[in-house]
Write a structure and sequence with these properties.
Blueprint (H helix, E strand, L loop, with lengths): L7 H8 L5 E9 L4 E3 L3 H8 L6 H13 L4 E3 L4 H6 L11 H27 L8 E6 L8 H9 L6 E6 L5 H15 L4 E8 L14 H9 L3 E9 L10 E10 L7 E6 L2 E6 L3 H20 L9 E4 L4 H11 L7 H10 L6 H11 L9 E8 L3 E9 L1 H5 L1
Parallel strand pairs: 4-5, 4-6, 11-12
Antiparallel strand pairs: 1-7, 1-8, 2-3, 6-7, 8-13, 9-10, 12-13
Helix pairs in contact: 2-3, 3-8, 5-6, 9-10, 11-12
The structure holds p-coumaroyl-CoA.
Amino acid sequence: MGSAPATVREIRRAQRADGPAAVLAIGTANPPTSMTQDEYPDYYFRVTNSEHLTELKHKLTRICKRSGIEKRHVHLNEDLLAAHPDFTDRSLPSLDARVDLSSAAVPELAASAAARAIAEWGRPAMDITHLVFSTYSGFRAPSADLRLASLLGLRPTVNRTILSLNGCSGGGRALQIAKELAENNRGARVLVACAELTLIAFYGPEEEGGLDNILGNGIFGDGSGAVIVGADPVGPVERPLFEMAFASQTTVPDTEDAITMQIMKGGLDFRVSAQVPRLLGCNIERCLIEAFEELAVRAEWNDLFYAIHPGGRAILDHIDGLLGLDAGKLAASRKVLSEFGNMSGTTVIFVLDELRRQPKDGGAPEWGVMMAFGPGITIETIVLHAASSLQQN
Ligand SMILES: CC(C)(COP(=O)(O)OP(=O)(O)OC[C@H]1O[C@@H](n2cnc3c(N)ncnc32)[C@H](O)[C@@H]1OP(=O)(O)O)[C@@H](O)C(=O)NCCC(=O)NCCSC(=O)/C=C/c1ccc(O)cc1
């Protein structure tokens, strides 16, 4: 006589993880070419044959000086640009060539970051059950996620999801999806990969308007970040870094036009309102209050650690001021901004990586928050709990 068959509810309970999803490993990568902010305006106006647009060059110089950025990495170097001179003029139909270049380069860059994350994780790539890939630079199917799975030797049954055009909130969204997958599938190990290449949106300055393009050229850079997410870590191999205690997405009302992206024949066209730092500033604290109320955790803003997407220096300044943060609270975000610029959705993964490396003189906060912002305006919030190994580090 066998035992009574399990109910669907019992089967479902057994399928779920016991513990919360946790960040188990992080890897990052950048293209080898880098440029300092001091040299960028001369470079940009020279390679786009636009030296005569002196007012715009002065504006880009002012933005570079005020950006809080020292250097950025780019895939589209001078040699590649010489082979694709039409990229400098967005009225020309250059989209095909841009898609060719990014379809090849995005998975390669993501594979570099993911290989580092997998090496740190300590388990074979074949143990990855799910892949969530976010990019604004890929417009082809099969997509960059399939190529990445092949480059890494993932199992043929890996569950793939690709997110496109989430912009700067892409990393935050991908991590939230990974949390859901890990907590709802016992034993799941989710690889989150983000890779962003500005070559899809690079073009020369325009005499009429085009200030969004000048802003973009002053602050955006290329990079890739990868994270392994899983619940119920298998010791001693798996060492959790951050547990993901709560996640939410908020759309700021009436801000659909504040950040927009659209694919055009000449590449990706983007618009960024000068009001973005203020609009975010007005809504950040409400997201934090709601998140910590859900958890019933009493939080003083200065008692938390922060992994904030450094969309621009002015955004970090607004958040610092509105939350009344002590000096250095946003140090990880500012350091990543300084060394790499705004790498859109992937940046927040660099910030998490920086955060876990920072010295914790005299102990570190137990609770913290990751926030990323993108078109919508969308605010992705994840409340993090530092694993014990990190608090003592
Ligand atoms: C570093 C900035 C740009 C300047 O610093 P500042 O302290 O405001 O300094 P100033 O007030 O002196 O401003 C310098 C100049 O920058 C100009 N500026 C100030 N924001 C602006 C503005 N959104 N537009 C175009 N001029 C501006 C500003 O008008 C001014 O021009 P001028 O008076 O002629 O010197 C700062 O304003 C800042 O960090 N802004 C936040 C930028 C921001 O909104 N980032 C998040 C959204 S970005 C996004 O969604 C990306 C999409 C994306 C798209 C394509 C990709 O390839 C990749 C990604």
